[in-house]
Specification:
Distance between the termini: 42 Å
Structural class: alpha/beta
Strand content: 15-25%
Radius of gyration: 29 Å
């Protein structure tokens, strides 16, 4: 007798590999035979069924405090990937689910009386009650002991080999061992309520209601031939202004049905002991402790707007069962389970948070053109992209592009954009990247080749690294500068090359001063570490070192502030004579001007410290001094850190006001970065992780923005531009990997046009090289 453990394809993350055909011939060391499951939701039940299916000798008990049919919500959405894992691991459950699934392809977005439909999405849903019935039946069939109306005993870890804590978002198990699991629970800004309608929507429906109290939204989808889930959501302040905090359940339901009467076809809504609640994101530093392991919402939550809660719980169960089969000991199995699931969950939580925050900030997008609004909603989590949506529904995507102003056959990234007197031929910016390769501040052959290659590579705008306004303002001895005429002449050599050899590519200069982050080693020798010798004195808004091991800067006096303003203005004059098309003032990443903006680095008690208005004073004075000498037809941008990623630092709300202030003084665009202000920051990394800050600034202020931060693909750029989240996209590492990134993006999309012009000597390489024969003769006869 033998069992089979079948591996999943490498791309199908989150699905279990275990398929049991025969019982175990023997017990391996650490193989858990006595298993307790706390919580009778889908994740806990499915884990119990899988483990019993894999080894019928197991004694498995599920402890559920509620009745069998008590459940929160109505419908459950599962992805094709999750269903594939279920089919592979337990065909009996899969076949039962298949019989009850409702399937559909369309998403409808209804806003201001106009409905836009996007197809090709592929959803499957069924009633939550029915899902539980199927899992109850399967557990009973296999011999799992289901105990309802029963609290789990406290001593389960002592009496059982394995305890699976699937006891939900308010997990008692998680709280019992909070010192080990170290949970972080974050409450968000919206209230929502789960309801149902007695008819099926014919699509996944999003409907926006603009009321006198604020914006409300409906999320609806069918889960049975005669029923739909309906979720009503709004910000806390809107909920209170509308009086929902004073209504009972029946009154709330009636009010919701009245607000969304058109979507509901005048039909009533029903509840299931439904209450208004606030979504909470749960994250745990650890998922297991001894023989206790967290599963589903006890371990992690993800906002319902991407339909992921039950999906994640079921996938957890699949992975846990597989790891218990594959590993020789329980500790190894639990470690493997967490190692497999944690990155998948983290990715889902990032997508869910992006979706959640999009709906929290829904009011910002209401005035977008209607099709762009719909596209923005569909791509809000960054998992559905421009290219992906074009594959699903080419007609809808083409309509969005046409409304945006894309000429036929032109991807959004290759449309032009105007800043003051400068028209960029496309939306791609080579982000400023410090090269630390100058000698005495003079850019040399390396800079000519580095910047020249990227200019030839097709980007609309190529930015220099941070160019320092004084010798004392360098980060490292290798930093480039513009404090002398000799440096200006060296820069002019580079701008002349770009103008002659890459016509149509603009080149910009970023001016800055290191502040307290200066006098350090070259990046590859020890980033932010002090020089072993030859250090120079540092200055900053306040006498605070960047790192405990670093040099403490002197607090700038009024006279020194005046000198610094003059240094910035003199450097700007040299930049203008050097032929730069655009100038960016560096007010980010903890350098001198950024140090004035952040309350964590500006502790001054004079006119330049304290409130945000006072902290802005010196950076605005520098901006004004530079703007006064910079040619009027040439644009100026400002790079800011929109958050410090640290408690007590710059917030997203502060960033909007900072952007608004610079725009009022004449900034043509805000380059929105984040962090690097304090050494103990905790950034929330992920794909395009900084773009929500740019998005918020753009829609709050109306100021053009440049988005930056882990934007790595041309699909990302097209998605961000077309959704209206940014005007330009700055990419750094992709341009280090491929200096011709923009031209290659055009070739890969089959685009030829004014937005991506190949230099004459390179035109022979403008088509992607073939990698092998694809024209082998095909068989024509069948014998």
């Amino acid at each position: 007798m033998e069992r089979t453990v079948t591996a999943t394809p490498s791309g199908a993350r989150g699905t279990a590999r275990a398929t049991a055909h025969h019982p175990h011939p023997h017990t391996r060391p650490g193989h858990p035979l006595r298993v307790a499951v706390i919580g009778g939701g889908p994740g806990g039940l499915y884990a119990a069924a899988l483990l019993k299916h894999l080894d019928p000798r197991r004694d498995i008990t599920v402890w559920e405090r509620n009745a069998p049919d008590d459940t929160f919500g109505f419908g459950v959405v599962l992805s094709d990937e999750t269903l594939g894992g279920i089919e592979h691991a337990d065909p009996t459950v899969y076949q039962a689910l298949q019989r009850d699934f409702v399937r559909w392809d369309d998403i409808d977005i209804v806003h201001r009386g106009v409905r836009h439909t996007s197809g090709g999405h592929g959803f499957a849903a069924l009633g939550r009650h029915r899902l539980l019935e199927i899992l109850h039946d399967r557990c009973r069939e296999l011999g799992v002991d289901l105990r309802f109306h029963t609290e789990a005993p406290k001593d389960l870890p002592r009496t059982h080999d394995l305890v699976i804590a699937a006891d939900g978002v308010h997990s008692t198990t998680r709280e019992t061992y909070a010192d080990v699991f170290r949970p972080r629970v974050t409450a968000h800004r919206c209230r929502y309520i789960w309801l149902a309608a007695d008819f099926p929507f014919d699509s996944f429906r999003f409907e926006i209601a603009e009321t006198e109290h604020g914006v409300m939204q409906l999320h609806g989808y069918p889960y049975a031939p005669d029923a739909s889930t309906v979720i009503i959501e709004m910000r806390e302040e809107v909920w209170r202004a509308a009086g929902f905090d004073e209504l009972d359940e029946a009154e709330s339901i009636e009010r919701c049905a009245k607000i969304f009467t058109e979507a509901l076809q005048g039909r009533p809504l029903t509840s299931n002991n439904s209450t208004w609640t606030t979504f909470r994101t749960v994250v745990n530093e650890r998922w297991s402790h001894g023989n206790v392991v967290l599963l589903g919402d006890a371990a992690h939550t993800a906002h319902f707007s991407i339909g992921s809660g039950t999906k994640l719980a079921v996938e957890d169960a699949l992975a846990l069962a597989a790891c218990l089969e594959e590993q020789d000991s329980l500790p190894d199995a639990l470690a493997a389970y967490e190692a497999e699931r944690r990155p998948v969950v983290a990715s889902t939580q990032r997508a869910a948070r992006a979706s959640l925050e999009w709906f929290e900030n829904l009011a910002l997008y209401l005035d977008q053109p209607p099709r762009q609004f719909a596209f923005n909603l569909l791509t809000r989590s960054r998992r559905v992209t421009h290219d992906n949506l074009r594959l699903r529904d080419a007609r809808f995507t083409e309509e969005v592009e046409r409304e945006f102003g894309c000429p036929p056959g032109t991807p959004p990234m290759f449309t032009p954009f105007r800043l003051r007197g400068l028209t960029l031929r496309n939306r791609v910016v080579v982000s400023p990247m410090d090269m630390y390769s100058a000698v005495d501040g003079v850019p040399g052959d390396f800079h000519l080749v580095h910047l020249g290659a990227r200019a030839l590579g097709g980007a609309g705008l190529v930015m220099t690294e941070m160019v320092c306004v004084s010798e004392e303002g360098r980060i490292t001895p290798g930093c480039a500068g513009l404090w002398s005429g000799r440096q200006a002449e060296a820069w002019k050599r580079i701008t002349n090359f770009v103008r002659a050899q890459a016509p149509g590519t603009a080149i910009g200069v970023q001016l800055g001063h290191s502040g307290r982050k200066g006098s350090t080693k070259l990046m590859w020798e020890g980033m932010d570490e002090p020089l072993p010798e030859g250090n120079w004195p540092l200055v900053a808004a306040s006498p605070l070192p960047y790192k405990p091991s670093g040099q403490t800067p002197r607090e700038l006096s009024r006279a020194q502030l005046t000198d610094l303003r003059e240094q910035f203005a003199a450097a700007a004059c040299r930049a203008a004579r050097a032929g730069f098309d655009l100038l960016e003032l560096h007010c980010a990443h903890g350098y001198l001007l950024s140090g004035f903006l952040s309350p964590l680095t500006n502790r001054r008690t004079d006119a330049y410290g304290g409130t945000l208005e006072k902290r802005l004073r010196f950076p605005l004075e520098v901006f004004d001094a530079v703007r006064n000498v910079w040619p009027g037809e040439r644009p100026m941008t400002v790079r800011i850190s929109a958050t410090d990623w640290a408690e007590g630092g710059t917030t997203a709300e502060d960033a909007v006001e900072i952007a608004r202030a610079f725009a009022a003084h004449g900034a043509d665009a805000i380059d929105v970065s984040t962090g690097q202000v304090v050494a103990d920051e905790r950034p929330e990394y992920g794909r395009s992780y900084q773009t929500p800050f740019a998005d918020r600034i753009r829609h709050s202020t109306g100021v053009p923005v440049i988005a930056v931060g882990a934007i790595s693909s041309w699909d990302d750029v097209n998605s961000l531009i077309l959704a209206g989240r940014t005007d330009l996209c700055a990419l750094a590492r992709p341009h280090l990997y491929d200096p011709h990134w923009t031209l290659h993006a055009a070739a890969e999309q089959g685009y030829t046009g004014p937005g991506a012009t190949w230099p004459a000597p390179y035109r022979a390489g403008s088509r992607r090289p073939r990698t092998g024969r694809t024209d082998a003769p095909k068989p024509r006869l069948s014998l």
